[in-house]
Request: fold
Amino acid sequence: MRMTVILILILGILAVVGCQEEPLGPVPVDMQAKNLISLEDNIEHHQLLENLHYELIEGTVIPGRGGLIGDTLSTWPKGCFFGLQVPPGALDTQDPTPVAFSVQVPTYESYMMYSHLNLPLILRLEPDGIEFHDSVTVMATYMPWVKDEPVDFWNVAPVVDKGAVVDVIYQDVGKVDVQSVDAGRRVSFKVNHFSDWEVGELPD
Reply:
């Protein structure tokens, strides 16, 4: 009798195991990110920018006065500063209306989720497309968890055809200034327009 009960239990367990389906719920992060992009695939890299989570730093600048906009990030290690130094002559002084500026930086969690991709420092500057009479200085803390030195900065420029992004060009490439600060490495560079900018080291 006991042997019969044991056999029934074993068969029951095998039946349950054999009928199990794929687990429900979110796919683990490493599986989600496994087949994503690198800098070598420009279009997919640009698509990834749309799906990251960002922290926002914002402020307003009065034309003819200029000013400094900046702050630290709540999800990054302590003291990581990001900001914009806007000279008095950057904006059209004929229109005195204050202009709202912002810097969007991916959260620390976003970088960790895609850490295997070795993402560059990503800075989304807005208003997108605005051009300046005098260059604006962008200041940022390079990722403290990355050992590689920041070398280049570049503009990520999507090429749009019939409403779809058909190519992405890295342009306006330059060398960043790097300073050692308590939080790590502070990088700065000048831009003559706002859009998506990145810092790292471009492939040769």
Notes: Residues 152 and 202 are 7 Å apart (CA to CA). The longest strand covers residues 164-175. The radius of gyration is 24 Å.
